[in-house]
Amino acid sequence: MGDILLFSLALVDTGVLIFILVFFIITLSDLECDYLNAQECCGRLNFWNIPKLWAQLSIPILLTLSGHWWLVLLNLPICIWLIRKFHCVRRGNLGEYDPAEIHNAGQL
Fold it and tell me: Which helix (H) or strand (E) holds 11?
């Protein structure tokens, strides 16, 4: 019974992550089409970075507690990449997405 609950929670969590990533794509598309300015776009995207990180980290934590080691190893690289991406934000930036970098790059 525990595995059914675990994998159901993992499925719901993955659905939430997919929803957040689709929201990111729509927001970046709105920025590209000039429906949003860079400041507003970055504010929206940076708001969802921490929930996205915790949603992704909850899957390996639950898998570790239930003893599914192979599945933890499969999820570990993306978790390490997200943590590194979160902690390696340049000094002076507003977050992972920064309006000044968007303006300086001139493209997405």
Answer: helix 2-32
11-22 residue pLDDT tens = 999 999 999 999
Quote the pTM value. Answer: 0.83
Residue 28 tokens read as 């970046």
Please check whether residue 41 is in contact with residue 28, taking contact to mean a CB–CB distance below 8 angstroms. Answer: yes
Q: How far apart are CA 67 and CA 9, in angstroms?
A: 15
Is 70 exceeded by the pLDDT of residue 45? yes
CB of 96 within 8 A of CB of 46?
A: yes
Instruction: Report the C-alpha gap between 64 and 75 in whole angstroms.
Output: 11
Contact 101, 93 (CB under 8 A): yes
- What is the total residue count of the chain? 108
